[in-house]
C-alpha cells in the first residue's frame, strides 16, 4: 500500500480500501474454556436477544428470506441495461436521492459535477489559508488543512469505490476521470511551498502550539513529514519530475491492478487421453477443438475441479501454470512502477523505495522487516515440514522413509489442491453434514451484531434504502448504534457475487468521521461544497448533547459470496472468517473517535491498520463465539458441537503452509522494492524464481505469478503488515479475550486503548497500553522481537 502524501494523508485510495491477502490464513478453532467473569456471557446474550428480538430477526431475514427483503426494500433498483454502444448502465431512478444519499450522485454527470464543485471549494480554501495570517487563521491552519483533505478524499474514496463495485460503466468512467483530476491536484498540493512554509511556521510558533490540541499537533507533524517526503524542498524542475513520477506510478499501478484477473491465455489445449482419469460429466463440459485436442477454459469451475480431482500430474501442472500466467503486458507494467518508485525514493535521498516507505511505519527499516520475516520462517519450518509429510502420504508409498529435502522436492505447487482433497476426503465421513447450513449470511450478520453488542455496546439496525441510494438491489444498509452515543455510522453491505465487481473482499471508507467546526455550519461558509437545489446533505452528521457536531463515517463492505437457488447464501468457515475480518475494519472506522479526518479510524500506519481485522479472525475461529449464534438456516437448530469440531480439522489444515506462503510474498515485496531495480539487468521474474528456488517449499520456478500479485502496487514494501499485525493480534487475543471472548470489560479496553485513537497516536504506544507492556512504547528492535516471539 502506498504511503499517503501530505494533503491526502492516509486517505490515498489504497488506504481507504482494505483488501485481504491472496492466500487465506485460518486461525485454528479455539478450544472451549470456562468463562472467567462474574456473569455468564451466554446468559447475557440471551437476555439481550429477548429484548431486541425484532431488530435481530430483521438482520437475518433481509439476507436469508428474499420475500422479506423485497417487502423491506420497497424502492426497487432496476437491473442494468446495455446501451447501443455496448456498455452496461443503470437506469436513473425516479426521485433518486443519490448514491450514498449524495444528491449529486444521481448520474455519471452528477459525479463529475460533484468533483468539479469539490475541486473549486478546495482551491478557495487553499487560497484563504495561505493568505490568512491572523492569529485565529494560524490557530485554525492545521484543521483547515484537514478539512481540505476531507473535501478531496470524499471524491477520491468515492471514485475508488465506484470503479470496483458499480455496475454502470458510465459511472465507472466518470469515477476514473474524477480520480485522475483529484490525484493530479493532490500531487500539486503536496509540492506547494506556500502550504508547507505556513505549516512549518505554525508548528514553530510556541504561542500557537500551546493553544493547539495534542491531536492537532500530531496531525500537523504528520503532514509536515509527508510534505518533506513529497519533495517539498526540491527546486521547481525537480518538483515537476517528482509529480510526473508520482503520476506515472499511479497510471502504471492502476492499469496493473485492473488487469489482475486477465490471463495470458483463456484456455489450454490438452490431449483427450489426458482426461481419462477424469469423470465424463466434466469431459463433456469442455470445448471441443480440432483433431484430438480439447480446450479447457482456465477461469472456470472445470479448471479448479481438475486441480482438485485428477491424478494426472502433468495435466494439473498445465492448468496451474496457465492460471498463474498474467496478461501479456503485466510484467512491463509491474517493472515500470517498481523502477519509478525507485527513482522517486532516490529523489528523496533514500537507497530504495522500501527504505523510503518504511521510515514512518512501525517496523521503521527494511532490515527490521527482513529480520522479522526470517525469524517467522525459522519458527514455522518444522510445522510446515510436518504438513508436507501429511500430504506426501497421498502421493507416494512408504513416504516415511523420505528425507525432509526429498519431501520438499516432491510436493509441487500444483499438487497442493489435489493432495489436500485426498487428505480431507479420508477424514470426512460420507454422511458428514454440511456446516455451511448453520452459517447463512443472515445468521452470521446477526451473530456479529450480538458480538459487538457484547464487547462494545453497539449493534446493527437494518434501514430501508431510499430511491437511488444504492448501486444494486442486493445491497443492504445498516445504521450502527451505540448504547451510550446513539447513531455512530452507516454500513452498506454488498456481499453477493456478480460479474461486474471486484472478486476480492474489501472495506471502503466512503466518508470519514471527524468533528465539524462551527465555521463550517455557517450557511455563508465560502469553502463548502454547495448542495444542488439546496436540499439534502453531502455528509451525514450527528450532534452530541454538548452541541458538538460530527461527520458520521460511511463505509461499504464488498464480498462475493454465492447464493443458492432460493436466494440464501451459505458460508464456509473460511468465508465467515473473511466477513469477520472486514467487519474488523468497519469497527475501526465506526469507533475511531478523532476530531480530524487525517487520523480517523483506519487512517493509521499501514503496518498497524490490519490489527483490528485480524483480531476479529480470532473471534471467528473461537468455538464459543460460533456456538453462540450459529443455527440451521431452515430449522433454527443450533450448530452441533461435534460437527464444528470435525470441521475445525479441515479449516486449520495447512495453516503453517499458508503462513509460509505469506512470508514468501512479503519477502518478494521487500526484494522488488529494494535497490535491485537500478541493476542494468533487473528482471522481476528472474528474482522471483531465484527466491522460490531458495525457499524451496511449493517452489514455483516457471510461472510469471508476480504479474498477478496486486498487493505489490497497493501494499508496496509493506505487505509484511498482515504477518506483523497477525503477531500483535495473537498477543492481544491471549491477553484480553482468550478466557472470555464476550467480555465487555476487555472489549471496552481494546476500544479505548486502540480503536478510539485511529492514527492519532504512535501505534507502539497503543500496543504497549493494551498489552500492559510499557517497554514496547520505544518501538525498538526489542519491541520487534517481543512481537515476533511465538
TrEMBL record:
Binds 1 zinc ion. Keywords: Hydrolase, Metal-binding, Metalloprotease, Mitochondrion, Protease, Transit peptide, Zinc. Residues 310-785 form the Peptidase M3A/M3B catalytic domain. Its EC number is 3.4.24.59. The keyword Protease applies. Signal peptide: none annotated. CDD domains: M3A_MIP (cd06457). One of its GO terms (cellular component) is mitochondrial matrix. InterPro entries: M3A_MIP (IPR033851), MetalloPept_cat_dom_sf (IPR024079), Neurolysin/TOP_dom2 (IPR024077), Pept_M3A_M3B (IPR045090), Pept_M3A_M3B_dom (IPR001567). It holds the Pfam family Peptidase_M3. It is an enzyme of class 3 (hydrolase). One of its GO terms (biological process) is protein processing involved in protein targeting to mitochondrion. Belongs to the peptidase M3 family. This is Mitochondrial intermediate peptidase.
Amino acid at each position: 500500500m502506498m504511503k499517503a502524501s501530505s494533503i491526502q494523508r492516509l486517505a490515498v485510495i489504497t488506504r481507504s480500501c482494505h483488501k485481504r491477502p491472496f492466500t487465506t490464513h485460518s486461525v485454528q478453532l479455539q478450544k472451549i474454556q470456562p468463562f472467567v467473569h462474574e456473569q455468564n456471557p451466554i446468559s447475557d446474550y440471551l437476555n439481550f436477544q429477548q429484548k431486541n428480538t425484532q431488530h435481530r430477526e430483521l438482520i437475518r431475514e433481509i439476507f436469508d428470506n428474499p420475500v422479506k427483503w423485497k417487502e423491506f426494500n420497497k424502492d426497487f433498483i432496476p437491473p442494468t441495461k446495455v446501451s447501443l454502444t455496448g456498455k452496461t448502465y443503470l437506469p436513473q431512478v425516479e426521485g433518486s436521492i443519490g448514491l450514498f444519499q449524495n444528491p449529486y450522485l444521481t448520474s455519471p454527470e452528477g459525479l463529475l459535477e460533484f468533483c468539479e464543485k469539490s475541486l473549486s471549494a478546495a482551491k478557495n480554501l487553499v487560497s484563504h489559508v495561505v493568505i490568512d495570517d491572523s492569529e485565529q487563521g494560524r490557530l485554525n491552519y492545521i484543521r483547515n488543512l484537514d478539512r481540505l483533505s476531507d473535501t478531496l478524499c470524499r471524491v477520491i474514496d468515492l471514485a475508488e469505490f465506484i470503479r470496483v463495485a458499480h455496475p454502470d460503466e458510465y459511472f465507472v468512467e466518470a469515477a476514473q476521470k474524477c480520480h485522475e483530476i483529484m490525484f493530479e491536484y493532490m500531487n500539486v498540493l503536496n509540492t506547494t511551498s506556500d502550504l508547507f512554509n505556513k505549516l512549518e511556521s505554525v508548528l514553530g510558533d510556541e504561542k500557537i502550539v500551546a493553544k493547539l490540541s495534542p491531536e492537532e499537533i500530531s496531525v500537523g507533524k504528520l503532514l509536515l513529514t509527508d510534505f518533506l517526503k513529497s519533495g517539498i524542498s526540491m527546486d521547481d524542475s525537480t518538483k515537476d519530475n517528482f509529480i510526473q513520477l508520482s503520476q506515472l506510478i499511479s497510471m502504471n499501478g492502476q492499469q496493473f491492478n485492473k488487469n489482475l484477473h486477465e490471463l495470458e491465455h483463456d484456455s489450454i489445449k490438452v490431449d483427450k487421453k489426458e482426461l481419462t482419469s477424469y469423470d465424463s460429466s466434466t469431459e463433456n463440459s469442455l470445448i471441443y477443438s480440432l483433431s484430438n485436442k480439447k480446450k479447457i477454459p482456465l477461469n472456470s469451475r472445470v479448471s479448479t475441479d481438475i486441480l482438485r480431482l485428477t491424478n494426472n500430474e502433468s495435466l494439473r501442472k498445465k492448468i496451474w501454470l496457465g492460471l498463474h500466467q498474467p496478461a501479456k503486458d503485466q510484467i512491463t507494467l509491474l517493472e515500470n512502477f517498481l523502477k519509478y518508485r525507485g527513482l522517486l525514493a532516490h529523489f528523496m535521498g533514500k537507497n530504495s523505495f522500501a527504505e523510503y516507505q518504511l521510515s514512518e511505519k512501525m517496523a521503521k527499516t527494511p532490515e527490521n522487516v527482513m529480520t522479522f520475516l526470517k525469524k517467522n520462517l525459522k519458527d514455522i519450518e518444522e510445522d510446515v515440514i510436518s504438513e508436507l509429510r501429511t500430504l506426501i502420504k497421498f502421493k507416494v508409498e512408504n513416504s516415511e522413509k523420505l528425507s525432509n529435502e526429498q519431501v520438499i522436492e516432491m510436493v509441487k505447487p500444483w499438487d497442493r489442491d489435489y493432495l489436500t482433497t485426498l487428505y480431507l476426503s479420508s477424514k470426512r465421513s460420507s454422511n458428514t453434514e454440511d456446516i455451511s447450513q448453520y452459517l447463512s449470511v443472515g445468521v452470521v450478520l446477526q451473530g456479529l451484531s450480538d458480538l459487538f453488542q457484547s464487547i462494545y455496546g453497539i449493534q446493527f439496525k437494518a434501514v430501508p434504502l431510499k430511491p437511488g441510494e444504492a448501486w444494486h438491489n442486493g445491497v443492504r444498509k445498516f445504521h450502527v448504534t451505540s448504547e451510550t452515543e446513539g447513531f455512530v455510522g452507516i454500513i452498506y453491505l454488498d456481499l453477493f457475487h456478480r460479474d461486474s465487481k471486484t472478486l476480492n473482499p474489501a472495506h471502503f471508507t466512503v466518508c470519514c468521521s471527524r468533528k465539524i467546526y462551527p465555521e463550517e455550519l455557517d450557511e455563508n461558509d465560502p469553502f463548502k461544497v454547495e448542495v444542488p437545489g439546496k436540499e439534502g446533505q453531502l455528509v451525514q452528521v450527528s450532534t452530541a448533547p454538548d452541541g458538538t457536531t460530527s461527520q458520521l463515517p460511511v463505509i461499504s463492505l464488498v464480498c462475493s459470496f454465492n447464493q443458492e437457488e432460493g436466494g440464501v447464501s451459505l458460508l464456509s468457515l473460511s468465508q465467515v472468517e473473511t466477513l469477520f475480518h472486514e467487519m474488523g475494519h468497519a469497527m475501526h472506522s465506526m469507533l475511531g473517535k478523532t476530531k480530524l479526518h487525517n487520523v480517523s479510524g483506519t487512517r493509521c500506519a499501514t503496518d498497524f491498520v490490519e490489527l483490528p481485522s485480524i483480531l476479529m479472525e480470532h473471534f471467528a475461529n473461537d468455538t464459543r463465539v460460533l456456538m453462540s449464534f450459529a443455527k440451521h438456516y431452515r430449522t433454527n437448530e443450533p450448530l452441533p458441537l461435534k460437527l464444528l469440531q470435525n470441521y475445525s480439522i479441515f479449516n486449520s489444515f495447512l495453516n503453517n503452509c499458508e503462513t509460509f506462503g505469506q512470508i514468501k510474498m512479503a519477502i518478494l515485496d521487500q526484494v522488488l522494492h529494494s535497490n535491485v531495480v537500478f541493476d542494468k539487468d533487473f528482471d522481476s521474474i528472474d528474482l522471483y524464481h531465484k527466491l522460490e528456488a531458495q525457499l524451496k517449499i511449493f517452489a514455483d520456478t516457471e510461472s510469471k505469478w508476480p504479474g498477478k500479485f496486486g498487493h505489490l502496487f497497493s501494499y508496496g514494501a509493506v505487505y509484511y503488515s498482515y504477518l506483523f499485525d497477525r503477531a500483535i493480534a495473537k498477543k492481544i487475543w491471549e491477553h484480553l479475550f482468550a478466557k472470555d471472548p464476550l467480555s465487555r470489560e476487555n472489549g471496552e479496553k481494546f476500544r479505548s486503548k486502540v480503536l478510539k485513537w485511529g492514527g492519532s497516536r504512535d501505534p507502539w504506544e497503543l500496543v504497549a497500553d493494551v498489552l500492559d507492556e510499557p517497554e514496547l512504547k520505544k518501538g525498538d528492535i526489542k519491541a520487534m522481537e517481543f512481537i515476533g516471539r511465538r
